[in-house]
Amino acid sequence: MNVKRHPPYRRPMTGWWKRDPFFMRYMLRETTAFAVAAYAIVLCVGVLRLAQGEAAWNGWLQALRSPLSLLLHLVLLAAFVIHAYSWFQIMPKTLPMIKMGGEQVSASAIQRAGWSAAAIATVLVLALAAWWQS
Amino acid sequence: MSETITKTIVIEVMRYRPEQESEPVWERFTVPYTDDMSVLQGLQAIKDDQDGSLSFRWSCRMAICGSCGMMINGKPMLSCQTFLRDFAPGPIRVEALAHLPIERDLVVSVEPFVKKLESVKPYIIPKEARTLEQGEYLQSPEELERIEQYSSCINCMLCYAACPQFGIDPEFTGPGVLALLHRYNADSRDGGQAERMEVLNAQDGVWSCTAVGYCSEVCPKGVDPARAVNQNKMNSATDYFFSRFLLPGSKRGGKP
Amino acid sequence: MTGKPRSNAPIFWLMFGAGGMLSALLGTAMVFITGLAVPLGLFYSPELLSYPRVLALAQHGLGKLFLLAVIALFAWHAAHRILCSLHDIGIHKGLVAKLCCYGSAFAITVVVAVNLLRVGF
Predict the structure, then answer these.
(1) DSSP structure class, residue B202
(2) For A60-83, what is each residue's pLDDT tens digit?
(3) Which of A79, B186, C33, C92 shows its CA 20 to 30 Å from the CA of B198?
(4) What integer best gives the mean pLDDT of chain A?
(5) Average predicted confidence (pLDDT) for chain B
(6) Residue A39 to residue C28, Cβ atoms within 8 A
(7) Are residues B16 and B93 in the same domain?
(8) Interface mutation vs chain B, best among C1, C6, C87, C92, most B CBs within 10 Å
(9) Cβ A8–B146 below 8 Å, yes or no?
């Protein structure tokens, strides 16, 4: 019997990330990259202005005081928080098995260590800046 | 004394019969059920009593053969361990595993998966030739612990249905196969890491993974393929930078 | 053997990882200080980022290293992730996409390096 073999049907991937909340959270995590890029550009322009002299530098500082810049940095701040949270959330997946005291270190222990490190680093930077200005 | 069946549930199944339609269509069935029935049993009731042409894979009915994977309300699940009572009164939407080409109804094409699995040499490649007289390999509980979860894979392909990178690029080796690659690389008895590095190091090896992590969420056996793939990114990166400086013939191929 | 070519992804992935770690640890505080606190005079005096102070930082060897590392690695992290996100929404990692993403990060790296040298020592 000669049965015609049809090629298997491939379903389209368009809008795949809207199909499940898990994917939406993944996309949110990935889009924080735009915030990191934006801030890198802000700092890059800052270094450029610094090299161009005091007037240019003060111009950059002035721009940072504009309502648009303040709003932008509020958004960037939220994005960086989401980045820090999601970065350490995924970190256990990137590490080989670690044993401490005969037991495997759990994924949640690794996450908590990461989030703690981020919190401590944040406090340290804020403190360092406070010390530097005095 | 048997329970009198009074409850029914609506199951919507994505049908695809290539000889009669060019695209999949949804078909609705009303199925009498009891609380102990799985979605698989619901499909079997449809096939027995309503439409004998409904096609789906199944075998063990106990979540070990890996045959009955399908999308149930949009999530990759084993139909034999998903229960109708949890979705009552429905409708439950049942579709072939996502990202895989549909042969017919709920039957997907598995050949690419099998070919990828073969490509990673999923068996112990001894470090050196071993005779029977030398006896069995000895393996400590700690050495077993490094591979045990990865050896639990039942090849059900739920992780492929979960992985959007595989959906976007079907050439991606994928979570399950890479987890099995890791299972053998990490086995204390194995000496074949160098032979498996080519698969790992390729763009469609570990480097197509973006750590979505959904594969590990849906795995019915707790294999955690996301971890297998992502911890091997460091191995692959190490191999990228350091293997160039080693002598040819070296077995250096990344450590588990 | 299938003869699959080795991917060059490790280079970009390592920078992605370094930039991601730096931005996860330091980014929040930095954005707060430079983008909100100092411009608004909140908790910190606007003098914190005055020209003489920042110039002194940028002229110091360690200051240069810090600024270059932070800005460049943030850029390389973002470039790699954005390239991957474009792939996720259907834009393939072709030469144009790679040049736009990695090229931008490279440009930022060069601009920062050059200008850190321009401020002198």
Answers:
(1) B
(2) 999 999 999 999 999 999 999 999
(3) C92
(4) 95
(5) 93
(6) no
(7) yes
(8) C6
(9) no
Q: How many Å apart are CA B37 and CA B58, to the nearest integer?
A: 15
B111-119 and B175-185 helices, crossing angle to 10°: 20
Strand-pairing partners, residue B94, are B13, B72
- Of B108, B132, B167, the position where a domain reaches its end is B108
Name the residue type at position A34.
F
Q: Where are the beta strands (DSSP E) in A56-121?
A: 99-100, 103-104
Residue ranges of domains in chain C, CATH in brackets? 12-118 (1.20.1300.10)
Collapse the DSSP code of B99 into the 3-class scheme (helix H, G, I; strand E, B; otherwise coil) and give the result: coil
Ramachandran sector of residue B10 (left: φ over 0; alpha: ψ -120 to 50; beta: rest): beta
Amino acid code (one letter) for A77: L
Distance from CA of A3 to the nearest CA of C (A): 32
Residue A27's Cα: distance from chain center in Å? 12
Residue B151 sits in which domain range?
Answer: 111-245
Q: Is the pTM of this model over 0.90?
A: yes
Q: Tell me, what's the pLDDT at B251? A: 44
**Considering its fold, how many domains does chain B have in total?**
2
Which pLDDT does position A3 carry in this prediction? 62
Using an 8 Å CB-CB cutoff, list chain C residues near A30.
Answer: 81, 84-85, 88
| Strand, coil or helix: B82 | coil
- The tens digit of pLDDT for each residue in A30-62 reads 999 999 999 999 999 999 999 999 999 999 999
Of C62, C66, C72, which Cα lies nearest the Cα of C102?
A: C72
- The amino acid sitting at B76 is P
C13 touches chain B (CB under 8 A): yes
